[in-house]
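To close the section, here is one more complete example, presented without commentary so you can practise reading it yourself. The ligand is adenosine-5'-triphosphate.
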Amino acid sequence: MEKRLNGKRLSKASRSGFINYGIVIAAFALIQILLVVQKLLGVTLVSNSLQSLLVPTCCYIVMAVSLNLTVGILGELSLGHAGFMSLGAFSGIVASFLLADVIPFAPLRLALSMIVGAAFGAVGGVIVGVPVLRLQGDYLAIVTLAFGQIIKNIIMVLYVGVDEKGFHIAASSERFNLAEDGTAIIKGPMGAVGVTKLASFTAGFVLILITLVVVQNLVNSRSGRAIMALRDNRIAAESVGINTTKYKLMAFVTSAALAGAAGALFGLNYSSTVASKFDFNASILVLVFVVLGGLGSIRGSIIAAALLYVLPELLRQFGDIADYRMLVYAIVLILVMLATNNDQLKALVGRIIPKRKGAASHG
Amino acid sequence: MLKVNDINVYYGAIHAIKGVSFEVNAGEVVTLIGANGAGKSTILNTVCGLLHSRTGSIEFLGKPLGGTPAHKIVEQGMAHVPEGRRIFLQMTVEENLEMGAYTQPRSTIDPNLERVYDQFPRLKERRKQIAGTLSGGEQQMLAMGRGLMSSPKLLMLDEPSMGLAPILVEQIFDIIRRLHEKGTTILLVEQNAQMALSVADRGYVLETGKIVATGTGQELLRNAAVKKAYLGG
Amino acid sequence: MADKKQFEKGKMVPVPSVSIIPERDLGTTPILECSHLGIDFGGLTAVNEFNITVGRTEIAGLIGPNGAGKTTVFNLLTKVYQPTRGTILLDGLDTHGKTPAQINRMGIARTFQNIRLFNNLSVEDNVKIGLHNQEKYSMFTGILRLPKYWRQEKAAHERALELLSIFNMEDLADHQAGSLPYGAQRRLEIVRALATNPSLLLLDEPAAGMNPSETAELMENIVKIRDTFQIAIMLIEHDMSLVMGICEGICVLNFGQIIAKGTAEEIQSNPTVIEAYLGKQQEGGAD
Amino acid sequence: MSFLNNVITGISLGSIYAIIALGYTMVYGIAKMLNFAHGDVIMVGAYVCFFAMGSFNLPPVVGVLLAVVVCTVLGMVIERLAYKPLRAAPSLAVLITAIGVSYLLQNSAQILWGAATKTFRPIVEGSLTLVPGQLSVSYVAILSVVCCVVVMVGLTLFTGQTKMGKAMRACSEDKGAAQLMGIDVNATISMTFAIGSALAALAGVLMCSAYPVLSPTTGSMPGIRAFTAAVFGGIGSVPGALLGGILLGVIETFGKAYISTDLSDAVVFAVLIIVLLVRPAGLMGKYVPEKV
Amino acid sequence: SNGNNPGGNSGGAVTIKVGGIGPITGDLAQYGTATEWGAEIAVEEINAKNGPVKLDYRFEDDTGVADTAVSAYNSLKDWAKDAPLVIYGCTTTAPCVAVASETFADRYFQLTPSASSPDVTANKDNAFQMCFTDPGQGVAAAEYLKNAGLGTKIGVIYNNGDAYSTGIANAFIAKAKEVGLEVVATQTYPDDKTTDYTVQLNACKDAGADLVFLPIYYTPASLILAQAKQMSYAPIFFGGDGMDGMLDMEGFDKSLAEGLLLMTPFNASGTDERTKSFVEKYQEAHGILPNQFAADGYDCMYAIYEACCKIDGIADMDSQKLCDALIAMFTGGDFSVDGLTGTSMKWLESGEISKAPVVVKVEGGVYVTQ
Ligand SMILES: Nc1ncnc2c1ncn2[C@@H]1O[C@H](COP(=O)(O)OP(=O)(O)OP(=O)(O)O)[C@@H](O)[C@H]1O
Ligand SMILES: Nc1ncnc2c1ncn2[C@@H]1O[C@H](COP(=O)(O)OP(=O)(O)OP(=O)(O)O)[C@@H](O)[C@H]1O
Ligand SMILES: [Mg+2]
Ligand SMILES: [Mg+2]
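Output:
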């Protein structure tokens, strides 16, 4: 009896995880094969626009999965996830710039920049996390929203550069006394310009895998259970000796660090990046992915992020609809929400695809 | 007064009520007993329109209820004191009671309030307290009081004695008896089968969504199987 | 009822703090000593001058009319509310200024009057969360799945099933906690509390919503838990068959004040208690 | 003098936030949903009034009434089509749907009315001079403060005293139990949206009278600010929305005037976070601890 | 259009694909649609000419965001397949910088109507601007004020969350210092959705500024003018080219702008035939008056068209060859274009345009060239 349960139980949690790895690896492999075939045969299998979406899609998948950790697993609404992405993007860009001479090998430089981005994201996570611990529900949502705005506002007036005297950082252009021959890395509202693009689809793929390892393994561990316990019932969680502060912060910081890494990858995929890109709407976009994919469902986040990020771009192909692209997007969004929450539809789906028993999964 | 005919209720894919039929005549106290999860609350919720049966029919006061929304059913004179109290936690005690008389004309509110306060003096003491901070038992009294505010023709009580001090359990059953005497029809769901059957005219025994036995209160009290399963005999 | 099961109760003896504890617990530090404990909510004094001593392996009962302050006492003991006055000694240690989580680690576990499970998680995970502080691997070990992770997870799994087996709930391990029938949820809460390895277990109306036969089974199990784990249990209950059947020392609260303390027999015959709580004479805790 | 000027500016700005926040908090308090489309209903209200007054030359009062009527209907239709099917769904699902509705309104407005900014003709013009050449208050500001207070008092009385208002509160707590009281939950929530949207129309007209530019995205930023104000004051609390709105306006103005215009957003939001740390349920929000 | 025939040769004329990028939804939609529609009119005129070159025009939305702009660019590449493609855009700076580095790497010729930062063209030989650069405008503004002897004490209010606004303001302040103008107040606001500018205006007023320089777009500027009037503050207001369009805002009270000075290359009430016909067509199609964005867009199409007409052997060129040929043409020295926004417009090696800045004053609701 025990043996059987044991085997079944362990395989269930990991089966769901492995399917996720499988989906990601298969998608990566498929696209790589298509790209190779395309090159060999000279036919268009993956259009330019789709190719250009590969890296950002990876970033948004990581964003969605990491936000799911806060919203789905910890159960706290965050409206400022893009703030962490912003921190990661700009710190990553600065890091890659500073490392340019030291480490000529681009992939390594990219990796280090992403680590720096993650570190900055994590620091942001701590800064937001601490007030968050005292607040609940929508009050917490407001703090995350406020944080996103503050980060945006600060980076918007931030000037960073290097010259032979060293590293300069200032909060306005007047105080930014960079020498004539110095290079400005971040120029206030102009953002970071002239970024050397280091990002690659492979890096995005690896980052997704790392994110999956971190999030999935976390969820299926002692710490993850504590986090979910806080979500389901804080008072009960405290009553069994769970340190609320520690685990809320753990979830927040992990999620922020992953967003920071995604931000660094994103920032290093374009030659210029501005802080206004990571505004409230960007945070909302990621939240849409998470909710649409299903709270707590990692696979859902991956699929929803991939589809929804690409959808508006795909709509460009369809002549007349293209003009009403964003309108169509809005309608699709509403209809999908209505459909996925429709009881009759759910029952129908339930009858067609019988659910596994004891639906206590967090795949 | 109430006629339930072959209803089947589902929660998603879970088949909770499997073809149950029973009836409650005017002036009767009828009790449903059964183990945890047998489906007692589900039946009450279906009768009052919060849940819907896939098949079968429910008649109240001679009129079929099929698909009538809960608030319309309540207007016709049914009151349901639901399981878990479900009082309005952010409202005061008195506001909760007033909500109970939502369908009633304004003039009936004050006399009804007085009546409820007579029955539960504790509520009168706490009339301005936010209901959410009441103790468990106080909340149960409030729920019951709220149900009485509309002077219903059919009162459905879902485990009214749960979590109450023995002295209050007696009171509750006294109230049930008194209501019975005054001619209120009551459909009672109870864990405390002993007491429930002793006040009831008739009872039904429910097991995993099916009615397995029926009879007068006294008959069921003597029924060996019932004794064993529900009376701790 | 004729064939009602009789449980063996210890002989109760007085201790200096105007309380009684089982004779077998004499000579050890009492698990719980409260003195002058009290709390006010705004103008309302919910609990006042609450003094009690609970022996190491005692099953103690806390009864009283609705709104008397019983749950509030539990909330004070577990620091859900911070006491306005008084001290609580747990196993001789002052619990002043501790958080609920720290209190649990010091040895008090509880269940709730209104069930508080982790509804979206499986039964097994609920118990494993109870085992949280007995598993000792870090977040990184968990993420990297080091051998320690596998070892401890396996141990936790086995321990969880072992605890569930107290109530014969092993087969429910994979079910979602929120979808369990009410009675099973109550039992799961007890298992989860036990998993934290407490020395004092607080049960708030464990039999509420159970029928008499289920209650009888629960009584057996409470005694069994005390016997196997050798812990103290304090329970709030309105079902007199349970309280009178298994509680050794019983304390009666009314309006936040203790109105009586003693054994089941003493309480049952106490006229103040009868008037305030029991109502007209109950024969041997009939249901 | 410049201090007084700043106070006046802050209160005028704040009264606009407040009147939007009142609608927000109303819908939140009853329907328990963050209606992110509220800002866009405001925008629609402003457009309606703009065209009524501009293209059809109707008097301001008629313009406002028309805006109120259109928005009330719009609010009820949105509720019926997009939110009602989600009664049983998790609150985040409703939040996302509201965002979808917000996008939908913005994009429809752009298709219907174009992207170009329009200048709104204020419903009342001119200002009251307090100290000639130095200190004056615009009539719009006075009007919006008055509207705020009237709406606040009206809503407080309505939800606290009337049967309908109490029914709304009952619905907000427990829809099932409310039905058992005989309350028609759907009608009640529909009513909530009607009121909220009518307020949105009023807010739109007042906002565009005070700051007379109008484009399809006009509502989004004030929407967020008003949400912030509502939370600041204690979301769900009607007087809180008023207080939160006014204070937010004053803080924003003082932050710009006495700290820095460079970081004005950062200052506002930092103050907000600090206040919330001291009062975790907002200024007027009751912190009702969960009974254990 | 036929994809696999470079220089798509239809009926004797060579067809060049022109892919435009700009925000046509979202906050910045009004600017993007103006550039889209202005160009559209030019394309229609050009194609009606039956000249040696025809333009096949398509415009993609970038919502004003860099990553979306890059996607838009790639979808234009997909659209063009192997036919020669020229990129027209982006409307706003940040997306334009991102796209320009892509076109630079892929070798597509790019001409932007309105992205005015020097970063757009910096180190990219293929990117050209139709508008003035921001620093150029800032410097020109300071010089103009100095020469005209306007403003003894100057206040500046700008959007420090916007590259365009910050770029002009910074250059202006630096140049002002250099030529000896006194800047007494520098005030900022974080984005164009800001509604209240009273604090900024008060600061200028308190500092005694008799001229306020507003290097910002017309929407916030219209609010600033209204609020200044409200507080009875009446300095001279001086704006950049982003200010053009204010008079055409539906419902705008033109008296507010009376006396406003602005630098704009385009005057919708201009009396020359070409302007009149452009304005007429634009109004007919879209119901509103064209502004400087639309006019720049119109000129871009003519610049591309006229340059293409002059290139030899264009029929056999792919995008990359065309890019090099256009670069050579634009920087060759003897290529110049007459348009709505200037005459004999030429381009520098850097990609910057060289055309004469024009300052106009609003008098009686119309522009009067100073
Ligand atoms: N919301 C729900 N979703 C899914 N299943 C449910 C739901 N509510 C009840 N059930 C299931 O339906 C069955 C009947 O439940 P019901 O609450 O009617 O029982 P009951 O007889 O009232 O039990 P109790 O004595 O515990 O109140 C149970 O198996 C229960 O698990
Ligand atoms: N947070 C609070 N704020 C205000 N009053 C409270 C609060 N918590 C409890 N009370 C009041 O304190 C008294 C004691 O409540 P408590 O929940 O302890 O009662 P109880 O003895 O457990 O009753 P029951 O048996 O009905 O559960 C009650 O009158 C209750 O209204
Ligand atoms: Mg039940
Ligand atoms: Mg209690």
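Once you have examined the tokens, check your reading against these statements. Strands of chain A lie at 159-163, 166-170, 183-187, 192-193, 272-273. The pocket of magnesium ion (ligand 3) is lined by residues B 40-41, 83, 158 (CB under 6 Å).
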